[in-house]
Amino acid sequence: MKYVIAFDISNNRRRNAVAKACLAVGFRVQRSVFECNLLADAYTELVGKIEAIVNAEKDTVRLYPLDKTCDESMEIIGRGKRIESAGFKVI
């Protein structure tokens, strides 16, 4: 399943740590927005990492699942390109 992960974290250390966790499994599409293709186990692992990093009283992280219809109907205006579904990420 593809997920869009967006966050608003004011603390640099926590924000960078969440970005690093997202980059490990997905692609940055904006400064604090990532697209990640994750199986259920990888999603659960990422959520656990994010929960361990954020301050629930101060930070916000939103994870939006995109089904195939939503993903295929997404439009990009301006810079950027579609992130195709891949079974793996080359690093």
Describe the structure.
With 91 residues, the protein is α+β, with helices and mostly antiparallel strands. The protein has a single domain, classed as Alpha-Beta Plaits (2-Layer Sandwich). The chain is built from 3 helices and 4 strands; from the N terminus they run βαββαβα. The protein has helices at residues 12-23, 40-53, 68-73; strands spanning 2-8, 26-30, 33-37, 60-66. It has a 4-stranded antiparallel beta sheet with strand order 2-3-1-4. A hairpin with a 2-residue loop joins strand 2 and strand 3 (33-37). Helix 1 (12-23) packs antiparallel against helix 2 (40-53).
Provide a concise account of the structure shown.
The protein has helices spanning 12-23, 40-53, 68-73; strands at 2-8, 26-30, 33-37, 60-66. It has 91 residues and is α+β, with helices and mostly antiparallel strands.
Give me the secondary-structure topology.
Elements: E1 2-8, H1 12-23, E2 26-30, E3 33-37, H2 40-53, E4 60-66, H3 68-73
Helix pairs in contact: 1-2
Proportion of residues in β-strands: 25-35%
Distance between the termini: 20 Å
Shape: globular
Helical proportion? Answer: 25-40%
Q: What is the tally of beta strands? A: 4
Q: Kindly state the mean pLDDT as a whole number?
A: 89
Low-confidence runs of at least 5 consecutive residues: none
